[in-house]
Design the sequence.
């Protein structure tokens, strides 16, 4: 007998990535030979090394997760649904480092490799994770000739009002990071965007082998680091230096409020979104160079790690206060005076392709990148598409990413 395991309801190997948020899956009998009844009990488990990812299961969209699940599967080929999630605290370190196995009795009847793909603290990545991320990012930019140029062009002075200084700041940047992360995953599906905790020292991030070292002027990289060829706006190199003799390897960003302080800004979105100033703006202006100003910030790949932490803080705040539902007033700031692109129902530039006032004159990059694993947020996301990122309110809203320290359960 043989069964087929469909992760994220797909037979594609590209869809075999899960996070803390439950992924819908299916099992069906593809070869019934040897079966003695019309329905067989199949036990589904995860198998991995102690240092690798781990998964848990449940039979339906709600309920407790367990390390194994027994499913009654008809031998006529009808599929039966179940759910898989990463076991919190056990993210993968390599693609396919967990196997989902199906057994009847002790006989293995089906098996697929999966990855618990999770956004992690950049300071704690394994060397393998670090090197794969840097290689994918460098390839996306391709010395200035690659697809990264669109991301550079999305975050400029002219597009500034689409993404800053109003409530859509957090939803817009969540979509922006997701679009970039999906492009990185098209290059290497094992990559997830890491975050820079700007309220902590990051000795493993600010090295010549990772995001580089500089006391001002051009960032220095080792001769094995592909970021040494980073080029934007026709110029080789990244201009970045810590302001006022700050050492990002040994000190948190001066004046940057801590995570605890950020999460205590208030329980309503209008209060919490004050974090656009501090810690977000303060983290940007601890530096001189590209990352200091909106118009040039996206020229520095560190921008995306800084913003990944901004997004993580929003995710933590959402979980702490139950602020995932766009229909609940406290989850957002639905001020009637919000500019276009900052109301929950508004589509977001540039993915909507709309140009001309009050939108910018061009819409670089086209539609939002799709994912082999999830359907949301679609080609033209709305502000509201960013809120329910774990699909808590509606499972179809799940965006397919999670943070190492933000649980689903
Ligand atoms: Cu920005």
Sequence:
């Amino acid at each position: 007998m043989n069964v087929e395991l469909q992760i994220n309801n797909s037979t594609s190997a590209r869809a075999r990535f899960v996070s803390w948020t439950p992924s819908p899956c299916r099992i069906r009998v593809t070869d019934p030979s040897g079966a003695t009844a019309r329905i067989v009990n199949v036990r589904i488990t995860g198998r991995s090394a102690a240092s690798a990812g781990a998964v848990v299961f449940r039979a339906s969209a709600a309920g407790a997760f367990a390390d194994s699940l027994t499913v009654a599967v008809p031998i006529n080929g009808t599929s039966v649904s179940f759910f898989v999630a990463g076991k919190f605290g056990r993210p993968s370190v390599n693609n396919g480092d967990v196997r989902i196995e199906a057994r009847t009795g002790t006989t293995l009847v089906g098996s697929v490799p999966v990855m618990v793909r999770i956004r992690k603290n950049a300071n704690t990545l394994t060397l393998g994770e670090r090197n794969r991320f840097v290689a994918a990012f460098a390839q996306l930019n391709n010395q200035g000739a690659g697809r990264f140029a669109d991301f550079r062009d999305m975050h400029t002075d002219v597009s500034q009002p689409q993404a800053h200084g109003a409530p859509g700041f957090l939803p817009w940047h969540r979509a922006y990071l997701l679009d970039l992360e999906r492009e990185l995953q098209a290059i290497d599906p094992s990559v997830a965007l890491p975050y820079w905790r700007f309220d902590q020292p990051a000795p493993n991030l600010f090295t010549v082998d990772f995001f580089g070292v500089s006391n001002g002027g051009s960032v220095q990289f080792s001769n094995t680091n592909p970021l040494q060829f980073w080029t934007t706006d026709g110029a080789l190199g990244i201009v970045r230096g810590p302001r006022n003799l700050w050492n990002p390897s040994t000190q948190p960003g001066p004046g940057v409020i801590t995570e605890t302080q950020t999460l205590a800004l208030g329980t309503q979105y209008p209060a919490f979104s004050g974090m656009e100033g501090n810690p977000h703006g303060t983290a940007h202006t601890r530096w001189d160079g590209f990352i200091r100003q909106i118009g040039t910030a996206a020229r520095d790949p560190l921008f995306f790690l800084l913003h990944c932490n901004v997004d993580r803080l929003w995710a933590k705040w959402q979980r702490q206060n139950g602020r995932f539902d766009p229909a609940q007033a406290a989850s957002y700031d639905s001020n009637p005076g919000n500019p276009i692109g900052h109301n929950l129902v508004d589509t977001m530039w540039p993915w909507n392709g709309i140009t001309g006032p009050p939108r910018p004159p061009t819409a670089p990059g086209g539609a939002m990148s799709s994912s082999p694993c999830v359907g949301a947020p679609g080609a033209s996301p709305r502000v509201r598409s960013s809120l329910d990122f774990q699909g808590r309110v509606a499972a179809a809203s799940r965006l397919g990413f999670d943070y190492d320290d933000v649980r689903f359960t």
